[in-house]
Amino acid sequence: MMRTRHALFAVMAGWLALTLPGVGLGEVPARLVLGTPQLYDLSVEEPHIAAQLRFGPNGDRLSAWRRNGRAEVWTLAGGTAEVRWNTASVYADSPDLEEAVGLIGSRLTLMSTGRSERPRGVPPAHLALSENQRLVMAADTPGVVLRDLRTGQARGFGTELAVRNGLAISPDGRYIVAATGTFSDGVHATALEIHDVHENTRQVVKSPGVVLGMWRLTISSNNRLAFGTQRGGKGGVLVIDLETGTRLFEQGGFDSYWVRGLALGGADGDVLVTGDEKGYLRIWSVAGKRKLFELKQQQPIQEVAIDHDRRRVAWSLWDGTIHVATFATEYTGFARAPAVPPAMLQEGAAQQ
Questions:
Q1: Which phi and psi angles does 92 have, rounded to 5°?
Q2: Mean local confidence (pLDDT), 222-249
């Protein structure tokens, strides 16, 4: 089969104004593009793709981890990036971006001190880090390990299946969520295994005929969990309250096979951002159970992020670029950021 290589033009200087229906020239929304577009193959997940994104507390910095092992933190006002590591095969950073852990070669390395150690047993394939310096680790085997980076104390938690699809820890360190499963003869068997560290309890979530938790898990500051779903080749998303188990929001039947990027914004976790393989960036109201905004990209979206104030959204594309948009009130379009570097591309559309 012939593989097609794709390229995207970059706007490297100045402003490119695209007039949209119903939008005056002076009101044209804007977005910031970080990085230089690379050739990509739709049949391969290229190593230059940013697979993890996270805003810092003030929304003025953005961390990104790429599949080639490069971990970087962008300062948005200047459009410059600090490279933390170039060879982190697995990576996690804290919500304030002040700490990070990476698997460098066969050693787990702590960014703040440079201390490293060889993990016992199989090296972790998944890492997640809380605000209070609790690190959760898992290999592609059953079970997870929770470690307090301040005290060094560690604790293990069992899982029914191998931690294959994802791992997350709540910002307060109370909940661990492991997306476990198997894949055999073209069939997924998946589950979400939720551990309450304080109460020492475990809940296993399964749904016959539905693939749960593939690609991304995200937990808000008030312990809402968002994860991807798939039924009959159609992607979707589900949001639940980790404390009560209540289903807060569910959307399915997307044209895309997978929803790859998920993020919850705000102290109340009420704004959900999704990005999928068909290139749709969507913003949803969890409480209102409706779509607020939609933007179609011409290539798959791998990951998304939203800042604490719910005004700034980022998404990564398969050409290696990262796009950052500052939104107007009520998500009626993009607002101009007060300070932006010259590499800009403008577009956007609101959903009423």
A1: -150, 145
A2: 96
